[in-house]
Amino acid sequence: MKGENQKTMKREIVLDERQKAYRAAGFVAFLTSLGLFLSRVFMQFVFDWLPAMDAATEDIVSDVIFDFLAQIVTLLVGPFLVYKFYLKKSTKEVFYMANFRKTDPVIYLLAFLLGICALILTMYVSYIWQVILLLFGFDGSSSTAMPEKFHLWHLLLMLFLTAVLPAICEEFTNRGIFLTAMRCSFSKWQTVLIGGIAFGLFHQYISQTFYTALMGMLLTYLVLTTRSVIPACIVHFTNNAVSVLFDFISEYTSLSTGTVLSYVMTNQPSLLMLLFVVAAGCGYLLIRAIKKRYAAYYVKNYTEFLKTGNQKYYDNVLPAWEMGDVRYRPTLRDNAFLIAAIILTAAYTVLTFVTGLF
After folding, report:
1. 160 vs 251: CA distance, rounded Å
2. Cα angle, residue 75 at apex, residues 70 and 79 outer, rounded to 5°
3. For 70-81, how does the pLDDT look when each residue is reduced to its tens digit (9 = 90+)?
């Protein structure tokens, strides 16, 4: 009887912790959705308060201000503070729950190669999505003004803003405690679907919604497979960094990557399909290799934990969602902030579609 009471008490403690984590994740989802929306609204007025500048400088300043507000404040600092103080966790515990744990170094290399494949696939999917939107009359084309001459500092700045910050901040928010909380309540594939939809809507722009949702599913699956967010950070960084490099190559060399891509997509559909199939096949093989490598890494660390009792081996391979075989069933009240976040992001996404029609 005493053992049963202790088991029941332990179960209640786990359920209470998972309820708090779920509510915190929902609140963070709403907070980030609102923060991103307000950041975009703020950027509509910021240049009224700044001195006049040329288009290229204005775009650079705009990127710096927006990414500071959106990435650092909204997606990193805000969520971290909520998790730390609401869940009453130490900094180390927050990052543990956010799945920042090391894994097999070979997986990092495989993740980099997977990022290249993901870029090819998302470029293709994005092109198809743009064609579909054009059929409805939506024109979401936009361009960023670039300085006349190449500057290394500009390239490094754009890599930092467009690749480094999203790889850290967006992964912390989307594949961090949010993923952990969802996985504590839903199955693996339900979590992948939720993670993808959330990531797609979180961009709050109809042109990006579809392919970022697919990317979100891939990154969520990768974190669930490796129990670490670091491989997802590498894939995310690689995808964005190579895109930035393409933009600079197109702007400052005789090779126009955008023109080449457009030509292939328009005039060489068979070549494009072949490239898509090859990238998809390579991506599949890389995911299998990552799973195989991680399986060996898991066995090695768990065996060391059983032999030595050293907590670090346990932390390396056992994420928060596997601590206690208890699944928390969220109530409508638990989902209140999450539903509000979905409504806000969906509404703004639809608004970007409507405004793009005119």
Report:
1. 19
2. 140
3. 999 999 999 999
Which of 191-196's residues contact partners 24+ apart within 8 Å by CB, and which partners? 191/220, 191/224, 192/217, 192/220, 192/221, 192/224, 193/217, 195/219, 195/220, 196/220
Cα(347)–Cα(132) distance, integer angstroms: 20
Q: Which of 211, 213, 206, 208 is nearest to 356 (CA)?
A: 206
Give the span between the Cα atoms of 24 and 330, in whole angstroms. 12
pTM of the full structure: 0.92
**What pLDDT, on the 0 to 100 scale, is given for residue 10?**
73
Q: What is the pLDDT of residues 250-263, one digit of tens each?
A: 888 776 655 555 55
SS3 content of the chain, % helix, strand, coil (to 5): 80, 0, 20
Burial of 80 (0-12, 13-18, 19+ CB in 10 A): buried
DSSP letter, residue 310: -
Q: Give the residue-averaged pLDDT of 208-218.
A: 94
Average pLDDT along the chain: 88
